[in-house]
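Weekend entry, working from home. Most of the wet-lab plans are on hold until the incubator is repaired, so I used the time to fold the two sequences that have been sitting in the queue since the last round of cloning. Logging both here for the record. First:
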Amino acid sequence: MSMIKLVNKTAQKGIVDPKIIIGGIVALAVIIILATGKFNFSASRNDQPSSESATTESQSEPTQAPSAPKSYNNGQYKFSLEYPGEWDYKEAQGQYVTAFFSPLESSSDRYREFLGVKVVSTASKPDITLQQATDLWEEQTVAASKDKNFQITDRKSSTIAGNEARDLFFTVDIEGIAAKGFAKITMANENIYIFQYFAETDKYEKFLPDLESIISSVSL
């Protein structure tokens, strides 16, 4: 039986530095196996985005003033976007094609909010619908993460790059850290694209305008 799996490129090696990437702890690595109806949730630290060695011009101190947005293009998975100049990114983060990290707020900042991008090919199951993919994401993620108090708080329909999308908002508690975020799911180019935002609860609103700017710039 053919299966559709979330792209799982090898994560870059490196030791997690708790001073700057505790945000990686709350990155919930999700694997969709659409052809068999399976959706596996994993909190393995090996699959978490690590901001260590992320592309940045000032990693030890926060940027003092806004800078011009930067462009990101992924030819392999056929998407591009712009991200704030103060943010940085790292490729091949566990189940993420790439992940974008918020700037350090101070030299002692422990947590970096991030947006991870996942891509799922639909080539082996071309009839899968957006709603089916979204339902699988919700059903299996909730069932597999009860011990982390994962809860869907809202669901909305929207668009991204002119394509129909589904937005699922959630809260989660990982290793004592209260976090919240959203997953925006859409389909294009024979792929399912999942944009996932994770933030410490009290920082969610602070970085939300940056996330909205990134999402609005996406081209598929």
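Second, folded right after the first finished:
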Amino acid sequence: MNSLGPDRVRPGWRKLVADLAAPLLAVSLLLAGLILTSLPVRSQDFGWFAYAPLSQQTFQLQGLVLIGPEAWAGIAMISLGLLILAFWSGYRVGSRSR
């Protein structure tokens, strides 16, 4: 039991949790997205048939990287984390009293 009553929480604690919820969520999304995008790319095979009548050599792609679903999820998490941080910082700056 505290001075405010048995079931009441200090008002400062709720404000602290509310103030830190958005940046902590954004930072966790950023870290998870960075981890997902840093995973090694799985090799994928694909092929096609094309007729090149004047070419006497085989065409091969050099340095082709296909983005897998993990990397796309990581890019989405990074984008969402940055958007949350931008909104939160704009809200904090705009809500300051003069």
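Plan for Monday: verify the second prediction. The chain has two helices and no strands.
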